[in-house]
Fold Beta-lactamase.
Amino acid sequence: MKFEDQSQVSGNGESTGRFGTAYQVLESAIEARAFPGCAFGMLAGGEVVLNDALGRFTYEPDASPVAAGTVYDIASVTKVVGTTAAAMLLVERGMLNLDTPLGEVLPGFVAKRATGDPARRVELQHLLAHNSGLPGYLELFRYAITPDALLQACLALPLQAEPGARAEYSDPGFILLGKALETMIGESLDSFADREIFQPLGMKSTGFCPAQAARPSIPPTEEDTTFRHRRIQGEVQDENAFVLGGVAGHAGIFSNVPDLLRFTGAILGSPRKDAGGAPVLFERTTVNRFAMRQEPAGSSCALGWDTPSQPSSSGTQFSQNSIGHLAYSGCSLWIDLDAAIAVVLLANRTWPDRQNQLIREVRPAFHDAVRRAL
């Protein structure tokens, strides 16, 4: 099924207004079971111009409806909202040099390697750019069943390419980056992010490890039949992050659309008016530096961020000077730095299992629809 523009529009709220086509894309996606429900929003000119929700937590008719402020497991969007944002702040404060070798911060990464091992040349910027040579996703949780064992497994991974020579999206790389940042700041990533990013921006619904009482208000991500053998709801879906205690550089943050739009406003340097004039955390020079595509040629990876590829999940309307990130769970965040526009889409496309891939069609169709509505 193609999620394209439809002439007939129905739904709630803005569905009869200028965002009607966007609503139709999402309604069609829910009908096709791309996901049971979603929350979505858009920031333009420093103001929230769209913030709504459709569908339910699951496909059961009596499941809770999704609200505009529903909190989701944002999975790999953690990489930019938490880990990369922390790195940006540390760079601005002169506390982080991106060319620092990883082995200087985490000696265990090089302790047992030969003198000429290319791992000794891996720098923190390589981890951000996903060009360290480390492998991509690995089911480390299958044999590393404690936080220390999983970290040690990451530290011991052999490189599959020379640093800077090949781009490969690497969860282990961001696990190590998160641990490196924790070592440098002398505290856990969750406490630093909460104090230095989430609280200043008024992101009251954002953080790692939701309280037990809050879990029923979060859409479930999966019926896990292979590892935890239970419904995953209100706890991180990513198994490696779960073994790490729910706090990791690559996954673990839970958030909602209003909070993420506050975050995008900070990236754009345009604090939201309804956020009480939240501070601008990031200098534009820092944003521009982290938004630059990295080696090798042809990679869409910037520093921590992704940029539009061809084709792109951001659709066809975002400029090349855009940054964003996707999540395995179905969530996404895209920011057009030239147009000062940001779009957030949160969904649990992995419910009840991970087989459905319709989100790949939904994302570009939705992004094109909301951009054209402006």
Remarks:
- The two ends are 26 Å apart (CA to CA).
